[in-house]
Amino acid sequence: MSSLWGARFAGGPADAMALLSASTHFDWRLAPYDIAGSRAHARVLHRADLLTTDELDRMLAALDTLAADVASGAFTPTLADEDVHTALERGLIERAGPELGGKLRAGRSRNDQIATLFRMWLRDAARRVTSGVLDVVDALVAQAEAHPTAAMPGRTHLQAAQPVLLAHHLLAHGQALLRDVDRLRDWDKRAAVSPYGSGALAGSSLGLDPAAVAADLGFDAPVENSIDGTASRDFAAEIAFVLAMIGVNLSRVSEEVIIWTTAEFRFAVLDDAWATGSSIMPQKKNPDAAELARGKSGRLIGNLTGLLATLKAQPLAYNRDLQEDKEPLFDSVEQLELLLPALAGMIATITFDTERMAKAAPAGFSLATDVAEWLVRQGVPFRLAHEAAGGCVRVAEGRGVDLVDLTDEEFAAVSPALTPEVRSVLTVEGSIASRDAYGGTAPDRVAEQLKRLRDKVSVA
Ligand code: ARG
Fold it and tell me: Residues in domain Fumarate lyase N-terminal (predicted)?
């Protein structure tokens, strides 16, 4: 038994205890970070005269060998190793000998180690997720660029609302995802503090400099408070939220892709590479990537809420409950690393039936607001204008025609202010072009938005 704590015990743990306690099956992915932490820790021990220069050199050489053996798979954890830290101390002692290998643990605890390594792993993961999200935004922007003037039905309550540009709609998803990228970057500022040197909870008595270790490991600063450093996991909950939010945003795009590719809508067709078939129904082309995004977003939300529940009643400082913080985060990152490239590919290769979308754009009397706003421009108060436009919808609906098909007499009967000129706004192009305030759906405004978004994606 290579336990780090066996001396005060007469016997080893029961088998079921060891099984319950073990975490190497998931925390082994932290091994390279653990070794980086050990290198930094060896250097502060040397600076504090707790290792001679020769010992430091031999320690670093042994850690290099260990790192290579971990990378090649020559060194792996055994069942008896409780966690990644224990396994790697065993590996170090096997390489450096018990005398030198046994010196490294001075002034550190697995509590400050794990809090530091988890931050390091998450900071790297956040960079990978950021680049995956940017690829999805890039695909949305490219589709918007390819369809600068295509119209579609804009919806609220999933009912026809007002015509909008397809590019405008796609960029709305892009904006949401870019905010997630901002969130990841903002999170990193708070995650970039190092708990190393906090010890078990109270700090170190050996004259070790936490700032030096922090700098060595790429952190901006050491934690201000060693109790907080070892006990807090809000950095994990915060990024779990951002990852869940990314999942939710991907799910919303996906839901639309699922609707658009139905036989009833036929607004879009998926490329064969991003669809799947049915084992029984030969005609099927299923949007499984989009459905998996929708499904996995539930899982990412679960990872966030599970972690919050784990944290909520824990007294300070470290409790073993905190070992439960890692799997939800590893899972959320892994799921997004599967999902993001697939969604980028799916979106980049969708073919839109822009003719069909444009034809559907005025359906459901989606130009009624344009009638009301035309009347307002003629000096009619909006309350009356809204009533008159509603009257036009009632007449057109009763006759089974579009607003533009009403006769001059029918318009005049609804309101004398409704002269035949009202037809000038009863086209999809006219309606879209008229919404030309900043952020609106007019082609020039969307082109400007596209350019700003494109610039953000390229500098990112
Ligand atoms: N494996 C633990 C975790 O993930 C770290 C070890 C701390 N163990 C302890 N008995 N203090 O949180």
Answer: 15-302
Please tell me the distance from the alpha carbon of residue 76 to that of residue 31, in angstroms, as a whole number: 10
Express each pLDDT in 59-86 by its tens digit: 999 999 999 999 999 999 998 899 999 9
pLDDT digits (tens, 9 = 90+) for 306-347: 999 999 999 999 999 999 999 999 999 999 999 999 999 999
| CB contact at 8 A, 258 and 294 | yes
Residue 108 in contact with ligand 1 by CB distance below 6 A: no
**What residues are annotated to the active site?**
157, 278
Say if ligand 1 is within 6 A of residue 24 CB.
no
pLDDT band at 2 (very low <50, low <70, confident <90, very high): low
Please determine, for residue 166, whether its predicted confidence score (pLDDT) is greater than 70. yes
Q: Is the CB of 431 under 6 A from ligand 1?
A: no
Helix, strand, or coil (residue 32):
helix
Q: Say how many Å lie between the CA of residue 83 and the centre of ligand 1.
A: 8
Query: Is the CATH number 1.10.150.80 carried by domain 111-359?
Result: no
321 alpha carbon – ligand 1 mean position (Å): 9
Nearest CA to ligand 1 atom 4: 323
* CATH architecture of the region 368-426: Orthogonal Bundle (1.10)
Mean pLDDT to the nearest integer, 434-444: 96
Domain 13-106, architecture per CATH:
Orthogonal Bundle (1.10)
Closest CA to 297 of 233, 334, 250: 250
pTM: 0.95
How remote is the CA of residue 219 from the centroid of ligand 1, in Å? 22
Report the C-alpha dihedral over residues 237, 238, 243, 244, rounded to 10 degrees.
70
Please state the domain extents for the chain. Answer: 13-106, 111-359, 368-426
Residue 364: pLDDT over 50: yes
CA distances from 450 to 136, 152, 204, 254, 376 (A): 15, 17, 53, 21, 31
According to the model, what pLDDT value does residue 12 have? 87
**Res 1: pLDDT:** 44
